[in-house]
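thought: fold this chain, then report.
action: predict
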Amino acid sequence: MESVKRFIWEYFIRPMYTREGYNPYNTFVYAIILGLAIIYTYRWIIKPLRIKVNEKLFYAVTPMVVFGATVRALVDGGVLAPHPLILTPGIFFTAFFLILPALFVDSKLKTYPKITVGWGAILALYANYLLVTNAKCWERYELTFFYTMVFFLPILVYYKFRPFEKLYLFPVFAHIFDIGSTVVAIHYYGY
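observation:
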């Protein structure tokens, strides 16, 4: 039993705290969990609640994604103390379980996606309030925005001349923002 505890600590818990990231063991397990989560979330939650997988669902969960990303940044910045529920991958589970009650209430009251968006917005706004009030240097945020725009503008130009489904711009923007923030993080923080 001690060897199981040591294995879990070594390959799952410790990498969250030390920021070592992923390894073959946790990557494999997280991939299986993600796959099962997608299947069973659809089967046991989305489908029974009669929520369509469309643009409306995307907009409904976006504030919660902002919340999760901001909480991770708050941990990285030392504003929030590291805890498995707010470190990667724990924050994904936390965000999922925080959004579930809103989805259920929205579905039962036939107000979908208003409550879900509102609840996610409250959480995202609070997390961003913590971010803004604890920011020590705005230059890094400005650079992140600058790099994001530099990388995203060519995509917008391409979109203007070769339109595609507008919804695809959002994940592309999210990845471009990730590129911009990664450039800044590597330059200033040595990630």
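thought: worth noting. Residues 137-191 form one domain.
final: tokens above.
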